[in-house]
Sequence to fold (427 residues):
Amino acid sequence: MKTDKKSHVVPIMMMIVLFGMIAFVTNLAAPMGQVLKEQFNVSNFQGLLGNAANFIAYAVMGIPGGLLLQRVGYKKTALIAIAVGFLGVFVQFLAGHAPETMAFSVYLLGAFIAGFSMCLLNIVVNPMLNTLGGGGNRGNQLIQVGGSFNSVMATITPAFVGVLIGETAKANIKDVFPVLYIALGVFALVFVVLSFVRIPEPHIEQSKEPLGKLMKGALGYRHFILGAIAIFVYVGVEVGTPYLMLYWLSELPEVGKTIAGSVAGTYWFLMLIGRLAGASIGSKVSSRSMLTVTSLVGGLLVLVAIFMPLHTMISLPVLQHSATGALYFGLARVPISAMFIVLVGLCTSVMWGGIFNLAVEGLGKYTAAASGIFMVMVCGGGILPAFQGWVADKVGELGSYWVVLAGMAYLLFYALLGSRQVVKNEN
Fold:
C-alpha cells in the first residue's frame, strides 16, 4: 500500500500543474484581447471574442465531456484534454505567423480549441485528485492545493503578459510568444509523463436511467434552474470584472499596460485569499449566508466604483515584476475606482461553491446530471463579458459595470429567494 501511494506522487503533481494550466490558458484571453485590440484596431467587444470562444466551448463540450469520461476513464480523458490544449495553444501561436487578414480569425479558432481542453480538464482534474488522494480529507486537501495553484497562475498570467507587452505603442501577438512557448512545453511534458504513469480509475456508478431523463428530472426543480442561471451569471461577473478593468486602465496614460496587467493580476490574487478564507469558515457559515453577503458587498463595491470621480487617484499595492523577474508587491497610482473593482475579487472567490451547494440540494439521483448542466452554463464566462464589452463600446469601460451590478443583483436574489426549494410533485 505504501508503494502504491508513493507511485501516485508524480501523477498528483501533474494534476496540480494541470489545475494551474486551466487558469494560465483561460486568463491568457484578456491580455491577448488587449494585444488584438491594438494590433488590429478592434473594439472592446471584438477584443473579448477570444475569451467568448474559450468559454462557449464549455456549452458545446460540457455534457459530451462527461460522457467521454464515463466511457474511456480519467487517464485517457486527461490525455485527450492535454493534446487538445496543445493544439489550441499552437493554433494561437500560428496566428502570430499568419497573414494580417487571417491572423485574428486564426487566433479565435485557437481560443475555441483551447476551450474544449479547459472544459475537459475541469471535468477530470478535480475527481482525479480526489481519487489519487484516496478520497476523504486527503482527497479534499489535494483539491484545495490544486485550487490554490490555479489562483496563483491566474494572478501571474496577466501581470506576466503586461511585462512582455511593456509600454509599446502597438502590441503584437509575437510579443506574447514566450507565454505560448511555456504553455506548449508544459502540455507536452505532462502528456509524456502521464502516458507512462499508472493511475487508478475510480469506480463510476452507471445509472440505469438514460442521461436525457436524468437531465429532465434535474430541470424539474425550480431552485436548480435558477441556480444554473446563477452559475452563468456568476462566471460572467467573475471574468468580466477584471477583464474590462484591464482594458480601461491600459488606455490611461497615467497607468499604462504593465501596471494594468498587475492590477488585474491582483484581482485574481484576492480571489486566492478569499478562497482560503472561505475554506476556513465554510463549515461554520451556510452557503446561503455566504452568497448573500458576498453578492451584496460585491454589488456595493461595483456601485461605488461607477460613481467615484475618475480624477481621484490612489496608491494601490499590486503584484509587480522586478527587472530580474522576481514578484513583489509595490505601490502603483491608479484611479480609486480600480481599487473597489479589485476588491470585488474577495467576493467572487467563494460564490461558485455556494451557488452549487444551494442549486443541487435535494436533487438526489439527479445531482450528476445537474453537474453536467452546470459545466455547460460556464459559457457565461464568455457571453456576459462580450456583452459587457459591447456596452463598454457604447458608454465606456466604467459604465459597462452596470452589467456586473445587474449580475450581482441577480445573485443576491438567488441567495435570498431563488435558492429556496419548492416541493416537487411526483406524478
